[in-house]
Amino acid sequence: MPDDMKNLERMGERVAQKLGDGPSELRREAQKRALLSLVAASKPEGEGRILPNLMVAAAVLLVFALGAMLLYGQETPLKFWVGEQETVGSEGSWVKASNDGVVPIRFDNGSRFELDTRTAVRVLASNMETVKVDLSKGLLHADIKKNGETNWIISAGPYQVTVLGTAFSVDWDSDSSILGVSVDRGKVLVRGGHLSEHGISVQAGKRLVADGDKGSVAMESISGDSDTANDQELASATDTGSPQDRQGTTDEGVAALEVDRSIPTPAKEGSRIAVKKSSSTVTPAEDSPSWKDLSDAREFAAAVAAARRQGLDELLTTLDVNDLWVLANAARYARDANVSERALLAVRERFASSKRASTAAFMLGRLKLDLEGNPTAATAWFETYLTEKPSGPLAEEALGRLIDACDKAGRKTESARNAEIYLSRYDGGLFTKLARSILRK
Amino acid sequence: MKQKIFIPADPFIGGCGTAVIECTRGATSGDHINMKEHVKNRRKDVVQLPRTVSSPAEIVKGLINKDPRAAADLYERYGAKINSKVWRLLGADSEHDDVVHQVFIHVLAGIGKLKKPDSLEDWIYGVTVNTVRREIRRRKYRRILVPMAEPPEITRKDSGPDGKMFANQFYEVLRTLKPDDHIVFVLRFVEGRSLGEVAAIGGYSLSTAKRRLARAKKEFAKRAAKNPVLASVIEEIKNAR
């Protein structure tokens, strides 16, 4: 068999292994129900009309097939239109704003959403009783016209923002589990995640920041001032246990607030500009695309070159964790090991308590092994990851690569020992063949 | 938090209604868990009698007569394989459940025309592939007309960030191929089917399947080489040999 054929087969095997065999049991249960309802719906009609009838049934039962959605009964639909061209939207649709500009969603009752660049939402339900939108990432501005009968709910990860009549913005960073809610007018109720079951009410002029990873919550004025008067209320609004714990949460809340000041405040255009201006020393010339734009356009080598032009030292000390990660990946794809390593080290140094810090250790191991051909350095990083996250999502891969790195570094005994550990934990996994071959040596 | 949810009608238990359930994690993943528990609790009162799954011929007959038990058996017997095929052809897609549902719609619509009930399995896989082919074509047009979000990254829970990125990039490149080339490529390299099986499942002659596979291989390799993630995986595979 030719080599390219074998390579494609191996790539296909890896894809199949990564994907698995299909969705969860719960979704399959919903599929089965949908099928049974389909048969039930077609029963009274004549044979010749099966397909049209099934199509109608399918429309009614679409929600079952979606499997994971909530239904709020058969209500009068609330029409909505997407984009400047006002394409008619339907429940279940995904809408994404590209890099170029905002995408409006206009509802029939005069309410309006605006999706900021790179924001993705799914309209789960839109009827006169409930409009429910899932914010999967990015920033959504909402201007809701209250009519007294429609509940407006924005979900973002484990959180829910219930609208009590208002104009507000929700931003959600799924990587770091940070939710921000800024209210311009009226008030909203934020629930879910680690917040108490009663939730937290956010009034006009306030911004709530909930950090799912730290379990903290902070409230600030949109102008940027910390709202210390609310600390006690916020402490009691989180699901922490003892008063001591709650005190700890309050302290963390203040810390979270400080972190958040580096994040653009969505509701105030002025403050966003201020953030950009404050980092003007690393802003590229207006006529040339930034390293980030180039990275988004998958021009990785050009992105790294642009980052160097902008000043790597400054970028590495000013970028937030997400942008550092993007820069590290762009450099890795461009096979620039030096920049990628510096960005990953910056993640570990500056964001030591974030989830990304351990993942950065794993990525450093890969970088050393694959790009620099330095297996000795790679083993140290894979060991670091396994020490920090012994049962982490990359533990299997880190152990597998550690076997390889030890072997390449000439540390045969360690390689064999790791191979034994691998087979005892992950027999049948991605590196089984490698582990067995090491033990056979 | 308490929340109203709609419990769909169950043809075996009967009825439908509204329930109030505890939701501790907002309205997304947590609800599913609670809904599952709720359904399980409802089923506690039902004594389920042991029952064997019908033969293909019985399923065909039952479906023609619109018997719900035949539909349940259809799902029992072929649901997992249909899911697996759609999942691998489209790559853990956000609209996976919709596509599976479409497969069942087409199966129910066409079951009366099936001449050999014993070939039900092959026929169902043919319907599955045709449904996915239609879906891929539809998306090519839809992408031009409506702003669509990227599907959420869904792969096995134990896939690390690199694994997810790799699988996403793999399907991103596949989506740029012609629909039939996309299908033969997945059947051959992800499903590991022989050329003869690819031809039979895809509904092509052997020579057509061979020609499409050659074209798909060439185009995929060309585009994968330009994709940094896939290029590094190919290199890794070459080095591992």
First-last Cα distance of chain A: 27 Å
What is the CATH C-level name of the largest domain in chain A? Mainly Beta
**Helix run count of chain A:** 17
Helix content of chain B: 55-70%
* Mean pLDDT over all positions of chain A: 72
What summary fits the major beta sheet of chain B? 2 strands, antiparallel
| CATH-derived topology of the largest domain in chain B | Rna Polymerase Sigma Factor, Chain: A
Classify the beta-strand content of chain A into a percent band: 15-25%
User: What general form of chain B does the structure show?
Assistant: elongated
Count the beta strands of chain B: 2
Assign a percent range to the helix content of chain A: 40-55%
Helix and strand pattern of chain A: HHHHEEEEEEEEEEEEEHHHHHHHHHHHHH
User: What is the number of independent domains of chain B?
Assistant: 3
Portion of residues in beta strands of chain B equals under 5%
From the structure provided, what is the oligomeric state, counting identical versus distinct chains? Answer: heterodimer
The largest interface is: A-B, 96 and 93 residues
> Main sheet of chain B: which strands, in order across?
1-2
Structural class of chain B: mainly alpha
How far apart, in Å, are the first and last alpha carbons of chain B? 55 Å
Overall 3D geometry of chain A?
A: globular
Low-pLDDT runs of 5+ residues of chain A are 44-54, 56-74, 224-286
Structural description of this entry:
The complex is a heterodimer of chains A (441) and B (241). Chain A has helices at 3-19, 25-42, 50-60, 62-66, 231-236, 243-260, 269-278, 291-296, 300-310, 312-318, 321-333, 337-350, 355-371, 375-388, 395-408, 412-426, 432-440, and strands at 80-82, 87-88, 94-96, 103-107, 112-115, 120-126, 130-143, 151-156, 159-173, 178-192, 200-203, 206-211, 216-221. By secondary structure, chain A is α+β, with helices and mostly antiparallel strands. Chain A has four domains: 3-66, no CATH class; 80-260, Jelly Rolls (Sandwich), CATH 2.60.120.1440; 278-333, no CATH class; 353-441, Alpha Horseshoe (Serine Threonine Protein Phosphatase 5, Tetratricopeptide repeat). In chain A, strands 1, 2, 3, 4, 5, 6, 7, 8, 9, 10, 11, 12 and 13 form a 13-stranded mixed β-sheet that branches. In chain A, β12 (206-211) and β13 form a beta hairpin. In chain A, α13 (355-371) runs antiparallel to α14 (375-388). The two termini of chain A are 27 Å apart. Chain B is mostly helical and 241 residues long. Chain B folds into three domains: 2-43, no CATH class; 51-152, Orthogonal Bundle (Rna Polymerase Sigma Factor, Chain: A); 153-241, Winged helix-like DNA-binding domain superfamily/Winged helix DNA-binding domain (Arc Repressor Mutant, subunit A), CATH 1.10.10.10. Helix content of chain B is 65%, strand content 5%. A two-stranded antiparallel sheet of chain B has the order 1-2. Chain B is elongated and about 55 Å long. Chain B starts with a strand and ends with a helix. Chains A and B meet through α1, α2, α3, α4 and β3 of A and β1, α1, α3, α4 and α6 of B.
